[in-house]
Design goal:
With 179 residues, the protein is of the alpha+beta class. The chain is built from 4 helices and 10 strands, in the order E-H-E-H-E-H-E-E-E-E-E-E-E-H. Strands 1, 2, 3, 5, 6, 7, 8 and 9 form an 8-stranded antiparallel beta sheet that branches. A two-stranded antiparallel sheet has the order 4-10. Strand 5 and strand 6 form a beta hairpin. It is globular, with a radius of gyration of 16 Å.
């Protein structure tokens, strides 16, 4: 089953809630691809020896990985870290996350600047392109265990919006013009 995504409502209440419009307005996997977002559904129970994950890592050049557990009991300064992750930002490299357990949301903007919420569950692997504005939060369960993948050494720097002066942002915006 493919990941689920939808256009968000404008409510400012708890960001861990689904925030679906009424009626719901789904966003397809093809629409996400047009924005440079790609996903796979894998078997997270075998992530340590999964040949499909190994093939994706090899094909995409994901040479570095680590695992993070996002939960109040395991992540120091949990509330502060969530505020940072939920601030709209971009990275100079692709962001690749594989959900090993729990649930989470990535929010991205479409070409008209509308928020799209992407629901991630166990087994979902997602790539967000460098230069895309986004934000992250766990859902109401407040638990996500994720593998972080990188091409080469990890870069942890986020640039909060506005960050339009970066060449990678300009390249990302230009890539949308043709789609």
């Amino acid at each position: 089953m493919a990941i689920e995504a939808w256009f968000m409502d404008s409510s400012e209440e708890d960001p861990k809630k689904p925030h679906r419009l009424e009626p719901n307005q789904s966003v397809s996997v093809d629409q996400l691809r047009e924005l440079g977002v790609f996903s796979w559904k894998l078997n997270a129970d075998i992530h340590e020896n999964d040949p499909e994950l190994e093939k994706i890592r090899k094909d995409q050049g994901y040479s570095y990985m680590d695992i993070i557990t996002i939960h109040r009991d395991t992540l120091p300064d949990y509330d502060e870290k969530l505020k940072v992750l939920y601030s709209e930002h971009l990275h100079l490299d692709d962001e690749i996350r594989y959900i090993l357990d729990g649930h989470a949301y990535f929010d991205i903007r479409d070409k008209q600047e509308r928020w799209i919420r992407i629901f991630l569950a166990k087994g979902d692997l997602i790539t967000l392109p460098a230069g895309i504005y986004h934000r992250f939060t766990p859902d109401e369960t407040e638990y996500t265990k994720a593998m972080r993948l990188f091409v080469g050494e990890p870069v942890w720097k986020a640039y909060n919006r506005p960050a339009d002066e970066f060449e990678i942002r300009q390249k990302y915006v230009a890539s949308l013009q043709g789609s």
